[in-house]
Amino acid sequence: MTTTGLGSAGLIIFTFVAFLLLLSFVQSNNTDFVVAGYLPDYRFYIDLNQTVLDLTDLLLFSVDAKPSLLSDNCCLHADHFKIVQQARAFKQKEQSRDLRVWLTIGGAGRSSGFPALFGDTERQKTFLQKLIDLVKAYDLYGIDFDCELPFSKQEYYDYMLFLRAACDKLHDAGVHVSVALHPHQALPKAIATLVDRVHLMAYDMLRRQGAQPEALHHAELDQVRKAVHLLVDNDAPGARKIVLGIPAYGRHESNPERVKTFAEIVDEMDAVPDTRNSWRGFRFDAPKDVRTKVAYARDARLAGVFLWELGQDKATVEHARSGILLRAAGSGKLYTDTAIEPEL
C-alpha cells in the first residue's frame, strides 16, 4: 500500500478543519429569524407562558435612565423579572429553547434620566455597572436603549457619545446592545457599527390630510420600506441589524390622536379581521399585513420583526392564548434559517 502526500497526521488535520468549516456553515444557516415583542410593565396580565412560545426575544419595557433603576416605584421591578423567569423555564420545557430577554432603558415618557448621564463620565460608569449587575442577576441577553427626547444638536451628540461608551462597557461584559429608533431619527455609521441591533419603530409615520387613503395608515408598507431603505442606503446600520417594528394598534385616519388597540378593534368587530385593516375610521395592521411585512423583512434580509406591543394584541383560545398578530408574525415557523443574527 502506498501512502499519500498528506500522511495520516495531515489527513486527520484536514478532516478536522473540514468538520469545523461544515459546522460553522450549519450554525450560520440555522440562526433564527427574530420574532420579538415589547412587554410593558402594565401589560403583565397577559398569558406570558403561552406568549413566549411564539417569541425568540422579549423586550421588557422599561426603566428610566437613572442609577436607581429598579428601586424606583416606576416601572419594572423584581416581581416582573420573576414572572419572566417562569416563562423562560416554560419555553425551555416545551421547546428546548431559551428566550432572549432584553431590558429597555427609557422610552416615551421614561427618558428623563438620560440628560443627566450625558457628559458625566463618572455617572455613566456607575449607571452602566448597575446595568451589568442587573443583567447578571436576571440572566438577561441585552440592553435596549430608547431615548425619546426632543434633542438639541448638543444633546444628540452627547447621546451618541453615551451610546459609544455604553457599547464598549456592556460588550466587555458580554452584554448585547440595541437601540430603538423612529424613522426620522439618524444613527451615525460609527455608532451603528457598534450596536448589535436597531429596533426600527416603523409606525406613527403620519401624513397630512388629502393623501391617498392607504397613506392615512400610520404604518403603511410603502412608508415602512422607505424607512428601512433610508437606514440601509446610509449604511447605518445595514439590513442585517434591523428588526422591523409592527404596531398592534390603529390610529384614526381623520384624528390620529385617537388610538385603539388591535384587541379593542377585534372586540368591537366581534370577528378576527384577517385581511380587513380599517374599522370605523381606524387604520391598523391586520394579520395579512403582518405576514406581508414579515415576508418583506425576510426578503430584505433584515434581522427580524418585533411587535409594539404584546398587550395590545388580541389573545384567543383559538390562537393558543397567544396574540393573533404575534401568531401571524411567527406563523409557527420560529427558528428557521433565513436570517443572520448580529454578533458581538
Please state how the strands of the largest beta sheet are arranged side by side: 1-2-3-4-5-6-7-12
CATH class placement: Alpha Beta
Level of helix content? Answer: 25-40%
Judged by helices, strands and strand pairing, the structural class is alpha/beta
What do you see in this structure?
With 344 residues, the protein is of the alpha/beta class. The protein has one domain: TIM Barrel (Alpha-Beta Barrel), CATH 3.20.20.80. Helices cover 38% and strands 17% of the residues. The chain has eleven helices and twelve strands. The strands form two sheets. An eight-stranded parallel barrel has the order 1-2-3-4-5-6-7-12. Strand 5 (176-181), helix 7 (189-192) and strand 6 form a beta-alpha-beta unit. Helix 5 (121-138) crosses helix 6 and helix 10 runs parallel beside helix 11 (324-330). It is globular, with a radius of gyration of 22 Å. The model is unreliable at 11-30 and 337-344 (pLDDT under 50).
Question: What key attributes describe this structure?
Answer:
TIM Barrel, eight-stranded parallel beta barrel, four-stranded antiparallel β-sheet, 38% helix
Please outline what is shown here:
With 344 residues, the chain is an alpha/beta fold. It has helices at residues 7-28, 48-51, 78-95, 114-117, 121-138, 153-172, 189-192, 221-233, 262-269, 287-299, 324-330; strands spanning 34-40, 57-63, 100-106, 142-146, 176-181, 197-200, 242-247, 249-252, 259-261, 278-279, 282-283, 304-308.
How does the SSE layout of this entry go?
Layout: H1 7-28, E1 34-40, H2 48-51, E2 57-63, H3 78-95, E3 100-106, H4 114-117, H5 121-138, E4 142-146, H6 153-172, E5 176-181, H7 189-192, E6 197-200, H8 221-233, E7 242-247, E8 249-252, E9 259-261, H9 262-269, E10 278-279, E11 282-283, H10 287-299, E12 304-308, H11 324-330
Parallel strand pairs: 1-2, 1-12, 2-3, 3-4, 4-5, 5-6, 6-7, 7-12
Antiparallel strand pairs: 8-9, 8-11, 10-11
Helix pairs in contact: 5-6, 10-11
Keywords: Signal
Domain GH18: 33-328
Organism: Phaeodactylum tricornutum (Diatom)
